[in-house]
Amino acid sequence: MNRRLMLACTVLISVLLSACAPSSLTTASAPQDNPALSFVVMGDNRPADPFHPEQPYIYHKIVRTAVSLKPELILNTGDLVVGYDATSPERASREFDDFERATKPIRDHDIPLYITMGNHSGYTPFARAEFSRRYRDKASGRLYYSIDRGNCHFIVLSSELEGEQAQISGAQLAWLKNDLEGAAGKHIFILLHRPLYPKIKHLDNCLNAHPEERDQLAQLLKQHQVEMVFVGHVHVYNYSVIDGLGQITAGGSGAPLSGTLAEGGFNHFFQVIVRGDDIDYRLLPVTNETLLATDLLERGYPEGALAMAEIAMETVPGHPQPYIIAALSHAVAAQEQQAAAMAGRLEEIFGNRDQTLFRLGEYALSVRQLELADRYLSQSMERDRNSFATVYHYGQLKQLQKQYPRALMAYDRALALTENPHYRSDINNKIREIKTEL
Question: Which phi-psi region, left, alpha or beta, contains residue 265 (left: φ > 0; alpha: ψ -120 to 50)?
Answer without folding.
Answer: beta
